[in-house]
From TrEMBL:
It comes from Rotaria sordida. SMART domains: UBA_e1_C (SM00985). This is E1 ubiquitin-activating enzyme. Its EC number is 6.2.1.45. It catalyses: ATP + ubiquitin + [E1 ubiquitin-activating enzyme]-L-cysteine = AMP + diphosphate + S-ubiquitinyl-[E1 ubiquitin-activating enzyme]-L-cysteine.
Amino acid sequence: MSTTPQGSTSNQDEITLVTTTTATTLTVSEQEHTVINEDSDNRRHEAFDLPKSKKFKSSTTLISNGSDLTIMSSNSNSTNVVEAMEHTNGEMNYNGNSENNNSQATLQTTTPYQMAGVLQHQTSTSSTKTPEIDEGLYSRQLYVMGKEAMHQLASAHVLISGMRGLGVEIAKNIILGGAKSVIVHDCGSVTYKDLSSQYYFNESNIGQNRAEVANKHLAELNSYVNVTCSSATIDDVFLQKNKVNVFVLTDANLDDQLKIGDYCHQHGIKFINANTKGLFGQIFCDFGLNFQVLDTNGENPLTQIVTEISHDEAGVVFMSTDTRHGFEDGSYVTFHGVKGMTEVNEQEFKISVPSPYTFTIGDTRNFGVYEGGGNVIEVKKPEIANFKPFSESLKDPEMLVCDFAKMSMPANLHLAFQAISNFQKQYNTLPKPWDDGDADKFYEVVEKLNSENREKVLTDELNKHWIKLFSKTCTGDLCPMQAVIGGIAAQEAMKAVTGKFMPIRQFFYFDAIECLPENVFQPSNEITTESYMGPKLPTKTSRYYSQEIVFGEDFQEKLGKSKYFVVGSGAIGCEMLKNFAMMGVGCLKEGHVYVTDMDSIEKSNLNRQFLFRSWDIGKMKSTVAAEAVKAMNPNMHVRAYVDGVFPETEHIYDDHFFERLDGVVNALDNVKARQYIDRRCVYYQKPLVDSGTLGTKASVQVVVPFLTESYSSTNDPPDPSIPMCTLRNFPNLIEHTIEWARDNFAGLFTIPSQQAEEFMRGPKEFAERTAKNHSEYDKTEIIENVKRILSGERPKTFADCIKWSRLLFEQQFHNTIAQLLFNFPRDHITNKGERFWSGNKRCPHVLKFDVNNKLHLDFIVAASNLLAHMYHIPQTNDYKLIAEEVAKLHIPEFKPKAGVTIHENDDQVRAELDRQKNTSAMRKNGQSGNDIEVEQLLNRLPKYDDVLDIKIRPHEFEKDDDTNFHMDYITATANLRAENYEIQRADRSKIKRIAGNIIPAIATATAMVTGLVCLEVYKFIQNHQKIESYRNGFVNLALPFFGFSEPVPPKRQKYLDKDFTLWDRFEVKGDMTLEEFIEYFKREHKLVPNMISAGMSVIYSPHFMRQTSKTQDMKRKISELFETVTRTKIPAHVRSLTLDMLCDDLEGNDVEDVPYIKYTFR
């Protein structure tokens, strides 16, 4: 092999991080598991002093620093590891006045980055000034939330109490999201138990205050958020002085949950209670009475093209019959751009929907008669949601179901989460891990709760098996579970302050019991927990202690020795690597995590890709991400690549690389790359988890060898493309004009200059490539492009650029439209007797340039600067100077020409393209690419010596650079063309999203989906063999909706009497002659090959071979035949070929489908 992942290659920029640190460990007896996991401080409730009366109680000292607030935080004395272990609690230590925390000192946590954020977001919510939003940073989130919601979020003050794994996950997501201020609160100290999921803690922090340690790292995440910490007692003075809008409580006992929940409800503070216990999670939301939900589903308002409105009592609105309109009965709509019946424009109508293609708005007889045009747009109406306080909801819960295969699970977990505190009060301890005696006692507590103080039991389906599993694992802390619950809870906090999206009403429970061994999580009617003795519990403390008490030490060893490939280190990749570091994936000597990404870090990444900081901009994502997770867990063996994964890099990610992997995790943003990785995983028979997000939507698909279908087994329907004719001549939506503007940009400023640049690098080579690879029509266009770019009429000064831009305006927005109207006048009637300008065809009008029209001048400024940049001419965006210059220009009058062909529909466009192809084929006459044609092309191109000194700089479209005029040009062009066709304009943000093909994204959905992925990785590590053990998932946090299901098994096929799936193949080892190969299949598989191919190349086909050739080929090796027919040398790193075969059985009957062949010849 020429390259393996252990070595460096010339085209590979990588870092290898394999250093190992040895942490201090302590021996833990079985009895001490109780000490590590239970709360030994009975005064933790004193951290919350919230009287129900409105009389404020001053129990905490706050220091006011202007309008900004610095909180005094207790300073924990250093303790040794043993003392820290003895003071560990299963829930948070909320005592602000413990012996180790009796001295108060001012903790100044505002960094320069935070101060910049304070200034940007304003320092007081009482200010009427709207917070400014950094669109460069928040661009992807803005497409999810919208500007109004972002302004609301940027004014929010959030308190998060509890800085263990779940709390920090919620804090991280809210800070990335851009709240005004976040206070992180915790009275407890860091223990070993925290290290399995709190990625900002390490062994050196043992004994330090959790909030203080976490705050140092959280403050770096977003310079616009004022992040402070506190370990003070929380009372009403604290909440009022900090202007807390949202109180997020984590890891608290039930008494504190009740106390805080009721206080928040009474005082109008939005309350979120979130907890994880092992493989179980809980979220509760109370946003008070009359909470207004401004957007219930997160979807863009529906928009349709109006084709007719009846002038009658019903007022029937007709739209394009191509697709269903999607409106619902009772929806509200408004109209824009309707002609004739102008009374409907900008008015709201409540509609009735009699069919998928029409709706009614009521009596239109007093309106004008519809003449044409117009769009109809959905109007989203707010909904009111009322929430009960926590104490009331606890007795009468409303619960959201997330897994319909376990319908009774929410009710069981509702009781189990309450039972923890009751159990602890009754037995002065938490349930010990995997202890049958404690599990029995815990079940008795749950049984009592099910009927206690109720007229009827909460659930008739109390599941003893589930409850006992909860008891045996509830003291564990798992990073993937906290990623899931933390992502969802953070999104709920954002909903609370923005009204954007529908909140959870009111309890949400989630479990992942399928992660346990397959003989454990089965339903109780198949197996009982008593038949499983439990895992081997840890005998010494380590950072993985809280994970080991759920899965055991042996499992942890497997995780540490595993080798995983993370493909992509963007938003999903960063979260995945963080989870892997906490889980301990690849953290033993034999283990490894490989990560690759071709991209470098940009500013817009910082809002979601939390491993990166502003000082990392420009660096490679994979290398920075690897360094960051290495800092989180120094024992992690992580190697970063900067090479993409595709056929051209198979010498890097070769057989040796893939064969040693235990699994692959996709963190990609396009289907083509996913399908390629999927094919590689099928070929190497490796498990794969694919995930993706689109705004608040997220999905997970698990691919298990021989058990499930692959990612590529099913395909989403392709996105509908815009017809060519619509783009060219008949746009009717702003999306059409945006795509036209994007193509126009490339056709003017990118493609021609790139072609000219190629010509300048080597005229003869350019002519040879053009002659060989292009049709006659394309050759003509390429030659004209090069001549235009390098001609003597090219601009020499900026004034020349202004003149060119003014002529371009005239050509695009006046002359072309005038010619179209000349061919098809406004009153044109088709040969069918119908109005030409009707239905989806909007009649345009010409634009007359107005130097005082800002949009017109925007176009001139942008186009002039783009052209100047291309020719290395000094640029300016001085509007006054440009306006004065353009006003001097004389523009010749345009006269339409007769005989100009303008296609009316796509059929005519396709016919013209076919004609051009046929003409090109005739002209080639077998001489394409020969010396004569090359010479002819060179004669048509400029003389090289005449253009030798010209310097060209093509524009590569970059949407996120606001200084390069790219988006300025596309925005102006799209809106000017929209004005031509009386289409409603779009703002720059929308145009940027569509032109740049930007995928809306938010950190909450990203964090959540990676948690779901890592739960599936737990199953891979244990080699789960039942399809019902795995879960595909689809989540929409906006609704909210959670859907989980078993994966789909692979399609089964049959040859002779044998079944096979996509995972099966024929394995042939050793390089055989063709004759040996054929005999092998006859002997071993009762099949007679009659055609063998590799890709598009046929290696063997007796029906089309001369006898002499056939006889000779029979003695040649398959590998030799492959090189001959493909005319390529097999690279040294390739050890096997993929062959396909058509064959008969031994009786000569055709066998239709057989598996492919993995032919290993080296």
